Inverse folding.
């Protein structure tokens, strides 16, 4: 709850600072919004660490291969990073660049998840009667 | 990691705008451009440092 108030206050302060700076220097407003977004994400990162600790114990309990778990974590990280970068790009008016960043994130996620698909195929091939 | 970097960047922006306006009005257009460029570079250094911090944090948490 404390973090929520921190996040809200940082967001409002960033908005006001952007509104103040934008008429004088429009390029600084973009940098301000980037910094505000980074501060908000850094506030949330400690929560991510807690969540992933619990996920780790659940995965350990279920006996799933730990390489799959790390791939899932990486995919979540790629998703958050590409979302951040693409929203910064679209804020500055380069919506086509934002689309390209999203496309790159999707392709990276696809390449990361291909080993899981091949392992599923391996399991299916073993189950099939010769 | 604090909020004061936001105020710092906003203050640098307003300050560079004022300085460049004063220099431009006193006829030193080239120096005013250089002052603007210096302000942008200073803020860019701050922002790049923060982006690097974000990337290292995400790299450690998501175990890249």
């Amino acid at each position: 709850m404390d973090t929520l108030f921190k996040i809200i206050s940082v967001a409002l302060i960033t908005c006001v600072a952007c509104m103040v700076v934008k008429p004088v220097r429009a390029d600084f407003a973009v940098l301000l919004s980037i910094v505000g977004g980074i501060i908000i994400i850094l506030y949330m990162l400690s929560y991510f660490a807690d969540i992933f600790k619990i996920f780790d114990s659940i995965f350990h309990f279920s006996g799933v291969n730990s390489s799959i778990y790390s791939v899932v974590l990486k995919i979540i990280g790629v998703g958050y990073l590409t979302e951040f970068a693409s929203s910064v790009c679209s804020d500055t008016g380069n919506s086509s660049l934002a689309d390209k960043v999203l496309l790159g994130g999707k392709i990276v996620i696809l390449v990361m998840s291909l080993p899981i698909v091949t392992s599923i195929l391996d399991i299916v091939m073993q189950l099939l009667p010769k | 990691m604090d909020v004061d970097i936001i105020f710092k960047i906003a203050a640098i922006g307003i300050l560079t705008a004022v300085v460049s306006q004063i220099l431009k009005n006193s006829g030193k257009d080239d120096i005013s451009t250089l002052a603007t460029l210096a302000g942008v570079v200073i803020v860019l250094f701050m922002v790049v440092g923060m982006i690097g911090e974000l990337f290292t944090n995400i790299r450690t948490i998501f175990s890249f």
